[in-house]
Amino acid sequence: MSKEKDVELQDIEPVKETRSEDERLPQLSRRSKGKILCGHAKLVLVIFVGVIGAALWHLHREYARDTSVFLILAIAFVLLFLYFAGSVVFFACFWAKDGGNTENSPRGGTKRTRFPVSPMACLERGWKIKNSIFDPSGKYFLAQRHLSQLLECFFHCYNFLSIYICSLPLPFSTALGIIIMVGGTVNAYASLVKRSLHCQNLLIIFDAVMDVFMVALPFLFRWYGIKVSTPTTEAVQIVLIPALGLFFKVKTVWSEIHRIDLERIERAVHGTVDGRVKRIGRNRHSIYRESKERRDALKAQNLVFRPCCRHTISAANVLATMFLFILIVFQLTAKVDDSRCQDIYSKEVWDGCEVKIPFCQSPFAPTCGCTVLKLANYSQRTFPPAVNEMSRLSNLYIYSGILEFIPDKLHATLYDMIVVDNHLATLPEKIGESKTLRVIDVSNNELEVLPESFVKMKELQLFAVNNNTLRKLPENIGEMDNVGFLDVRNNRLKSLPTSIAAMPRLYAMYASGNPVCHDYNPPQKLKIENDLCEQQCSDGCRSLFLGDGYCTLRYIIYNKKPHDFNVPAYQGCNVASCRYDNGDCPSS
Prior knowledge:
Blueprint: H1 2-17, H2 30-37, H3 40-63, H4 69-93, H5 121-134, H6 141-167, H7 170-192, H8 197-225, H9 232-270, H10 292-304, H11 307-333, H12 338-345, H13 347-351, E1 353-356, E2 370-378, E3 395-401, E4 416-420, E5 439-441, E6 462-464, E7 485-487, E8 508-510, H14 579-582
Parallel strand pairs: 2-3, 3-4, 4-5, 5-6, 6-7, 7-8
Antiparallel strand pairs: 1-2
Helix pairs in contact: 2-4, 3-4, 3-9, 4-9, 6-7, 6-9, 6-11, 7-8, 7-11, 8-9
């Protein structure tokens, strides 16, 4: 019996001695893992993704009534931000496979994680194809990168022809064209030459910077340069493709950095000295580690990305760049005859064009185009007939004058129409056909009725018609689902349509100074943030504008700068009766 026990002991003891060497290695503390996983490159990426997500959320708030594209993009970047942060926390706190199990190490030294075995073999096949295309180690990754950059170059060229030269001043659209040319030149050279891993780092950074510039610059210039909003369709067209490209580029960079960090953790464990873990800092010399695996992957990618494909993509980039170069040189050297444009529109109208777009109708033939028209003290009762031909006019601002009529075709492309302190007797009969108008301010005119088609404007969000002679509002005005702001003060309204209570997004309505307010009880379903018939502190001020952080001068357009249009400073909310906009305006 004792011999049998000795045999059993002899069988057991060697097993204890042959235990895996990796199981006897010391493990890194959570603090040490966190230090490696939270390098400066990752912190920059996390901050970058957070800023992009915040910017997209701001765009969503601006265009929430029109589209949900920006909301979806903002959610995608927020989820990416949480994924970045969560992956660091998980691997720092819960990932205990510091050394031995290469089969389970995340895309590490020898063996990759396989897609879980599933009855649906097509999913596994699809996963492998996806990795071969989008994984930085996939054999088609290099070809995919160059092809996507070529498509982005074409997309930017299309935006240049359809948006930039039709909505921005010539110098700024030229600057955007030069940026596109630089990007096309770099992509043409990079696709022609076999790149090292270090070049991949630089190209990814360059592509990301290009995407940010091509999204941010048009918005910033329109908002802060010429102080007009970007139409919804143009905003989506400018943002969507670069934002998607930026999403995948950032995710690719993060995946590579994260893989390198996990390999560094394994090397730190295997590099122990006298049982202690070797110290490794939080920084790395390169996004892509110059490992044998990565060099072999790059060789495989170069074999797949054949010379014929390289030359084709490079030639396409060169053609796009040369086309833009020739176009920009022609536009800079061509001269627009201002005297001819003044003969067509009148000197007063042409001088009031704040953003001239001479190459919108034809990139190689200058015309008298205008997209932002601002006039003060207009001296004519109507516009010249040629104004109807301003096919890309998006913003019309007329402050004071004797204008009585607005041409029927002028509203077709308008985004904002502000005609105040004039003698308008009617609005265009077909104004309801407009699919772009969001703001109409016709305060201080002589309007008595609104066109029958008025309620068909589904995109209208703000309508100010105070200080006119309106006798009634359309009975079916409740069908205007997007209207959120309605000012009908100081008219001759004896009743209000009951359908107003059905307007789902109406948050502010002002009706004081009308006979209806003498004994009117608003419907309980009417949910607005102000008192409907409350007398305002000033004729040009609304209670919602008091103390909002802007010095509101008479009309909404004056929120930003007091002296843009020669408007007297002490108007609107900037008067003593409004306590100088509750402190937002200087009292002297």
